[in-house]
């Protein structure tokens, strides 16, 4: 890996102590895990509690009733989901956004990131709620690799050169350009980051196969296809375009052909309105 990326990983801000304690407890407890202990750890940080309650009562998790205590949240969502969500939220709040090396507008980029999380929740909540809950942390951080590669390019003075080359390529083959300048593409780098922060191995593997979900093990194939579809649909340069919408449908069909249980009718129904409109436009 590019030495600058190694430095980038070394310089990452540490997770809050409460988050580290929660991760270590959940990962080490196994069948001995106690909901009350998880709630006790979380209660040490009122900001985390407030954010978890907000998320739990948002459309993300589609809970059937309002929750008002952290113990209710842990009981309803499960300690693993809570751990991954708390970690993702803590990480996401630690970074300032400047994706100018990619030629992207920061506000539009952030809006697209939010839509990714909303979509994966809305799409999967009814047909596979457990999968939706598991993948929300991945969706929350799906573009983190781009954010950190941007920062590295700026610090190394390569940002303008990268942008000019990107423009010359008409913003195509961005992953190849990332590999050329950084030694890794943004999605593969995200896998390194998930490993660095010690997320669940299932999530690390799910991300590792976004580019080739057909090669994933059967155990995490649906995860990887769901992330691949979301990554394709909300591709930062042309989110929800006709091309990317058709490509995402092709990925669903490919997954179904491999025995992955996706409901195509549900997927089409949950597509954002902009994608539906683009699909019926003339080529």
Question: What would you say about this model in short?
Answer:
The protein has 283 residues and is mainly α.
Main traits of this protein?
single chain, Hypothetical protein af1432, 17 helices, 0% strand
- The outline comes out as globular
Q: What is the CA–CA distance across the termini? A: 41 Å
Helical proportion?
55-70%
What fold name goes in the CATH topology slot? Hypothetical protein af1432
- Can you identify the CATH superfamily? Hypothetical protein af1432
Number of strands: 0
Return residue spans where pLDDT drops below 50 for at least 5 consecutive residues: none
> What is the number of domains?
1
CATH architecture: Orthogonal Bundle
Which structural class matches the secondary elements?
A: mainly alpha
CATH class, please? Mainly Alpha
Total of helices = 17
The chain-level mean pLDDT equals 92
What pattern of helices and strands is seen along the backbone?
A: HHHHHHHHHHHHHHHHH
Radius of gyration: 19 Å
Beta-strand content = under 5%
Largest sheet: none
Give a structural overview.
- Residues 12-213 form the HDOD domain.
- It holds the Pfam family HDOD.
- This is HDOD domain-containing protein.
- It comes from Helicobacter winghamensis.
- With 283 residues, the chain is mostly helical.
- The chain has a single domain, classed as Hypothetical protein af1432 (Orthogonal Bundle).
- It contains 17 helices and no strands.
- Helix 6 (79-92) packs parallel to helix 8 and helix 15 packs across helix 17.
- The protein is globular.
């Amino acid at each position: 890996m590019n030495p600058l990326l190694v430095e980038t990983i070394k310089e990452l801000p540490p997770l809050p102590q409460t988050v580290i304690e929660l991760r270590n407890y959940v990962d080490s407890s196994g069948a001995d895990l106690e909901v009350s202990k998880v709630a006790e750890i979380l209660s040490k940080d009122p900001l985390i509690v407030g954010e978890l309650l907000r998320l739990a009562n948002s459309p993300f998790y589609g809970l059937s009733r309002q929750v008002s205590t952290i113990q209710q949240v842990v009981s309803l969502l499960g300690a693993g989901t809570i751990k991954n969500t708390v970690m993702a939220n803590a990480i996401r709040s630690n970074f300032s956004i400047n994706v100018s090396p990619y030629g992207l507008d920061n506000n539009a980029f952030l809006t697209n990131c939010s839509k990714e999380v909303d979509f994966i929740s809305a799409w999967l909540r009814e047909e596979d709620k457990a999968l939706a809950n598991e993948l929300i942390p991945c969706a929350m951080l799906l573009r983190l690799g781009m954010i950190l590669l941007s920062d590295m390019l700026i610090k190394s003075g390569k940002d303008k050169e990268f942008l000019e080359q990107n423009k010359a390529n008409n913003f195509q083959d961005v992953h190849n350009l990332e590999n050329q300048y950084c030694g890794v593409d943004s999605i593969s780098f995200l896998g390194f980051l998930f490993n660095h922060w010690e997320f669940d191995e299932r999530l690390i593997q799910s991300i590792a196969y976004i580019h080739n979900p057909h090669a994933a093990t059967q155990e995490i194939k649906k995860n990887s296809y769901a992330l691949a579809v979301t990554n394709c649909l909300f591709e930062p340069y042309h989110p929800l375009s006709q091309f990317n919408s058709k490509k995402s449908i092709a990925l669903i069909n490919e997954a179904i052909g491999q025995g992955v249980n996706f409901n195509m009718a549900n997927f089409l129904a949950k597509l954002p309105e902009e994608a539906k409109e683009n699909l019926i436009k003339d080529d």
